[in-house]
Design goal:
This protein is of the alpha/beta class. The chain is built from 6 helices and 6 strands; from the N terminus they run αβαββαβαβαβα. A 6-stranded mixed β-sheet has the order 2-3-1-4-5-6, with helices on both faces. It is globular. The two termini are 18 Å apart. Bound molecules: guanosine-5'-diphosphate (GDP). Residues 19-25, 36-39, 41-42, 68, 123-124, 126-127, 154-156 line the site of guanosine-5'-diphosphate.
Amino acid sequence: SIFEQSDEINLKFVLLGDSAVGKTSFLYRLTEDRFFESHVSSIGVDYKTLHFNVNEKKVHVQLWDTAGQDRYRSIAMSYIRGADAAILMYDITRASTFQELSQKWMVDLKNINDNTVIGILGNKTDLEATRMISTQNGKLLSDQEGAVKFTEISAKNSAKEDLLLIFQEIVEFVLK
Ligand code: GDP
């Protein structure tokens, strides 16, 4: 294809998970290195493009941020189709967001596209005092679901560079 000839690769990733787990905050940290304590819940879908160099190829990743509310779920579903990877996020301080990850988001994802590379992120590690989901349980879920990457992050406190490294690992899995 044209893209291979020019050593450029375009990928599409989707960010999934319940409302307020921190999807938009993660996207802001990755792109603008900013954090907002309060955020107006994103309506519909927005995306940012991230750029990586992998094996001397330029890789452009469109990362789609889908709103988690049920009324926007059908929108999110349409973005899963054709996604090269899905990053599923839960909030370590809210058990319901962890349960929904396997009972809702993973089910939808596998129904639509069973080949999608999956990464799982537990967000809000800065709120350790109110943690509800252990790291070990996150790992167990990740193994169960065949995720290529699991880690815990804080969109509030993690360094942008560290989040980009996690992201780059998932990109490398997609290109394998
Ligand atoms: P989204 O609905 O999944 O996109 O979630 P948002 O990014 O809008 O975040 C929801 C709320 O959680 C906002 O008030 C954020 O400021 C807050 N938030 C997001 N990430 C973190 C984090 O890592 N730590 C803390 N303490 N709050 C966070």
